[in-house]
């Protein structure tokens, strides 16, 4: 009988040796920095998301510049207009807030990848992601008329210089409608980053505070996915978007759906993005402020887990801090 004992701890004895065999390595280029932009001249702190603000246009450019200097190469823009209406016309206005921010950031940092969130909920007076209607006593979004509004929004964002459009409303057929509209308007080169698998999640609470997009009637459970849904539904949603021409797939939220990230990574060969959402951010921030957790270690471990599950890129409000910590180490 062999008396040889294999000792895995040998490979973990010193930091440089652990680095030598590390399988998953975070890089700031993996992060997408989200920016809320409003039409005011001053920044507004977001109470439920410590450290995050609604940016003025000038401040958004500076935030993008800071991200670039730290090695972050992509931002995603969410607009908060002064005025809203029933059909979210600010989303596809030539001088809408996201369109203005896109032009300003691209002028200041041409190499920065600017992603435009292509949705209507921040712009509608009722807070839903399209035409509001009532079906059988339930308030929901009228799917097909909304596709035209989303297509108009994507084209308007591309005209402003957005490098990628990211439809997030979970309307059936949205990727196909947007792809056709972009191609028809001369933007065949603009990729579609689809929020392919997006759940009706409790983790979005702080975002709705930040964007002023809480629904005034009903909720989004008739079009976003059920949190108790299984793998078959996730695959079906992702496959439909692939068939319609999506260039990237996304899973949102991230922490409670790491299994879904892994599922899509194994099933599809498109670039895969996940969204480390507002509630996930707020949980760590609150615990750190109370002294319950080490913020730096917790954030980097959390982002590493998402990357290990299969996410090529991570939209995260921790992006600036995480990039600084990685640079320090």
UniProtKB/TrEMBL annotation:
It catalyses: 2 5-aminolevulinate = porphobilinogen + 2 H2O + H(+). Its EC number is 4.2.1.24. GO terms for molecular function: porphobilinogen synthase activity. Pathway: Porphyrin-containing compound metabolism; protoporphyrin-IX biosynthesis; coproporphyrinogen-III from 5-aminolevulinate: step 1/4. It is an enzyme of class 4 (lyase). Belongs to the ALAD family. PANTHER family: DELTA-AMINOLEVULINIC ACID DEHYDRATASE. Homooctamer. This is Delta-aminolevulinic acid dehydratase.
């Amino acid at each position: 009988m062999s008396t040889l004992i294999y000792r895995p701890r040998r490979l973990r004895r010193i930091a440089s040796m652990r680095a030598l065999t590390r399988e998953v390595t975070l890089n700031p280029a993996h992060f997408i920095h989200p920016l809320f932009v409003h039409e005011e001249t001053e920044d507004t702190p977001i109470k439920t998301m410590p450290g995050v603000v609604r940016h003025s246009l000038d401040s958004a450019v500076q935030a993008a510049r800071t991200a670039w200097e730290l090695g972050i190469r992509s931002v995603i823009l969410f607009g908060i207009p002064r005025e809203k209406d029933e059909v979210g016309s600010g989303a596809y206005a030539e001088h809408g807030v996201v369109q203005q921010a896109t032009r300003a950031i691209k002028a200041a940092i041409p190499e920065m990848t600017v992603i435009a969130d292509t949705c209507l909920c921040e712009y509608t007076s009722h807070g839903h992601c399209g035409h509001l209607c009532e079906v059988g006593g339930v308030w929901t979004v009228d799917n097909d008329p909304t596709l035209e509004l989303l297509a108009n929004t994507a084209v308007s964002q591309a005209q402003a210089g957005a490098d990628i459009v990211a439809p997030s409303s979970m309307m059936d057929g949205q990727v196909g409608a947007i792809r056709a509209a972009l191609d028809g308007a001369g933007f065949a080169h603009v990729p579609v980053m689809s929020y392919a698998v997006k759940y009706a999640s409790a983790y979005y609470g702080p975002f709705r505070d930040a964007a002023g997009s809480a629904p005034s009637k009903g909720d989004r459970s008739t079009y976003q996915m059920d949190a108790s849904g299984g793998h078959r539904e996730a695959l079906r949603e992702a496959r439909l978007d692939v068939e319609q021409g999506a260039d990237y797939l996304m899973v949102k939220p991230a922490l409670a759906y790491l299994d879904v990230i892994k599922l899509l990574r194994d099933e599809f060969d498109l670039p895969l993005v996940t969204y480390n959402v507002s509630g996930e951010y707020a949980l760590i921030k609150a615990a750190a402020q109370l002294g319950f957790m080490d913020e730096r270690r917790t954030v980097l471990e959390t982002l590493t887990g998402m990357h290990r599950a299969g996410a090529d890129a991570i939209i995260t409000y921790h992006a600036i801090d995480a990039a600084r910590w990685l640079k320090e180490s």
